[in-house]
Amino acid sequence: MLLHALTIFTGAFLLFLVQPLIGKYILPWFGGSPGVWTTCLLFFQTLLLGGYAYAHATSTWLAPRRQAWVHLALLALALATLPIAPGAEWKPLNGDAPTSRILLLLGACLGLPYLALAATGPLVQRWFSLAHPGVSPYRLYALSNTGSLLALLAYPFAVEPLLTRPQQSWAWSGGMVLFAVLCGASAWRARNLPDAPAPPAPGEDKTGDAVAPTAMVVFFWIALPAVASVLLVAVTNKLSTDVAVIPFLWIVPLGLYLLTFILCFDHPRWYARASFSALLAIGCGTVWHLLDQGPSAKLPLQVAGYLLTLFAACMVGHGELHLLKPAPRHLTAFYLCIALGGALGGVLVAVAAPRVFPDYYELPLGLWTLAYFTGVLCLVRRSRELAAGSGLGVLTLLLLLPALKTKGADGPLDWLRLFLEHVRTFHRGHWLELLCVFVLLHACLHDGWRPVGRAWRPRMSLFPLLMSILLGVVFIIQAVDGARTAVERVRNFYGTLKVRSYNAGAPTHYLLFSHGVTTHGLQFTERPRSLQPATYYGPTSGVGRIIDFLPGFPGRHIGLVGLGAGSIAAYGLPGDRLRIYEINPDVTRIARQRFTYLADSPAAVELVPGDARLSLEAELARGQRQRFDLLALDAFSSDAIPVHLLTAEAFDLYLEHLRPGGVIAVHISNRHLDLRPVIVAQAKRQLMHFLTIADEPGDDTWWLYSTTWMLLSRDPGLLEDDALAPHADPPPDATAKPVLWTDDFASLLGVLK
Fold it and tell me: Measured between alpha carbons, how far is 305 from 287 in angstroms, rounded to an integer?
């Protein structure tokens, strides 16, 4: 039994340790987009499905002896592909389809080892059930998820800070060899097992082995994991889009997702139907509110709201899944359906959603679907607890929403104080809503004025079903309102783009370009105002001042990472050259078709498709040093920071393309993070002088946004000029600790505001 447990634990540990490891390897190659991790998850879930299908097929059609030999052969092939580090030949070329390129890369570098690891859990559990008749194997599934969770916790706190990426790859490969030894020993023992189904575990229905699962049960075996997978990827996308695309923010949602598997499959006592269905209702309302608030919601409330809702939703989904588990005879089929559901969820988010939805609708859609499934399960499983929990959640939500809407909370403790105050005064303004919900809940759960105890009534399912209908209506209204002013909406691998039209009369008619929740450009449609730069590129911003200072150099050569609406082209003069790097082809198309900055500029504008860092590397390899007078970095995807563009290796590359005495300008405006320590660390490492210009335009120039730009140069006289120095912020405190980011390690903990 110990050998089985060690094999399953080691395999699960390696299975999930490799996910952030390989994601970190390839993230800088594909623009640092949240789509990189979404595509990685699709690969992992698909290979997991393949592993479970392999385990189900071999255990169904082969005797244990042949299963053992086949699995030993698979382990040998997997070891032959080590190490797993992808080579430079896998870096994308301009025009490559990122999703297919990532899937091919992962398949070639990681396919066989990951398939062998994925098959281990269900296959070894099947061997365990044959070797130990009468003992339920399902707690080994909880052990498997425990190993996975520990791997995710180990990566950001132990693996990433201590080992470089090549060292991580070799260490993982060594772990794979150890796993192969353990799994080989388990397979060798399995060759002598009888080819007979295990008798039912104590307390199970003895007819369970003989009765095949119904079609509805199999449907929920697939549908519940699919919804949980959709919510996992949707919440990860939300956090990555609004904060940063780094493995740490991928790990937290995935860790909570695994924790729910551990709790639900360890023992039924962890899943309290009434409590978690109530939390699901509260979470749905919280997500609706956070989506409605958009970027104005406080970061701690956003993170807590999305993660706690994900936890509650996965507890409901996986808890109901565990209650539908079959007898051990059908174990591999059960796990195969779970893996199929997870893969379907990944396909829906990574492949279907960007082609079907113009915005990130999968989060509210996933919550609505789970709420509906909760109502259906309440009806078919005759669960009074699900009905009562849903009603309790709606009542609590009516108390929560007024507190959530307050703008006076600066932190969790302050928000708790205001919430308690709202609870105390709630009856004054919301008694009617409270009364209506109470009456409906009473009618569903009670017979007249006498409680029905634990007796079931079909009308009890009305409350969760009506709640799901109401939730769907609310999310549809929210989606329609969000699209009301949009003249164009598009979504692709790199995120969601919107162009909105605002008309308050001819002089103030303008188009607003946004990526996610962050504005990426604004232009007035009437001349001469259409020729003036706006948003982050105003004349008093850091980049505006340094560009105005550059006319001392004839024929300025300016580079920009991140096109947006093309506002920087408004500064172009005859003889200037503007070289703009943009990875998102839809951004390029919109900037050309909807905005006129590029067409109106007298400068020679050249747009370079593809990731800026890879393009600069390729130019350097061809001997094409750009010798920029100014290189401006403004490649933000929504509010997420481009981590791979702010590392030491990236700055080494920028200096190769900068003329002596040239300037690097970095846009560090961010709602949640203070990036100044990161840029200061790079400046000190490169022996560059720097200054910070924070611009706060007045209300009379509303089209200019508050910005913070940092300017770096090895020419001290340039930054000390009277045209720049008087507008700079005081230098940072000498005791402030710089935060050096590299490709191997970049932590957000030191830069949180």
Answer: 7
Number of domains in the chain: 3
Same domain for 288 and 153 = no
Q: What is the pTM of this model?
A: 0.77
The token pair that represents 222 in the structure block:
């697939």
Token pair of 742, please?
């590299």
Nearest Cα to Cα of residue 168 among 91, 49, 92, 86 = 86
Structural domain contains residue 86: yes
| Tokens (6 digits) for 328 | 């051990």
Widest Cα–Cα separation across the chain: 89
The 10s digit of each residue's pLDDT in 539-548 is 999 999 999 8
pLDDT digits (tens, 9 = 90+) for 192-207: 766 554 444 444 444 4
Asked if pLDDT for residue 380 goes beyond 90, the answer is no
CATH number of the domain that 592 lies in?
Answer: 3.40.50.150
User: In the beta sheet, which residues pair with residue 709?
Assistant: 667, 693
User: Residue 634 and residue 668: Cα distance in Å, rounded?
Assistant: 8
Domain annotation covers residue 204: no
As a whole number of Å, the CA-based R_g of the chain is 28
* pLDDT tens-digit map of 25-64: 887 777 666 778 778 888 888 898 888 888 888 888 888 7
- Please count the residues of the chain: 753
Query: Would you call the peptide bond into 528 cis, given omega within 30 degrees of 0 as the criterion?
Result: yes
The CA angle 742-745-748, to the nearest 5 degrees, is 105
> Which residues lie below 8 Å from residue 358, measured CB to CB, with a gap of 6+?
483, 489, 490, 491, 496
Does a structural domain hold residue 662?
A: yes
Range of the domain at 298: 217-470
Q: Are 330 and 460 in a shared domain? A: yes
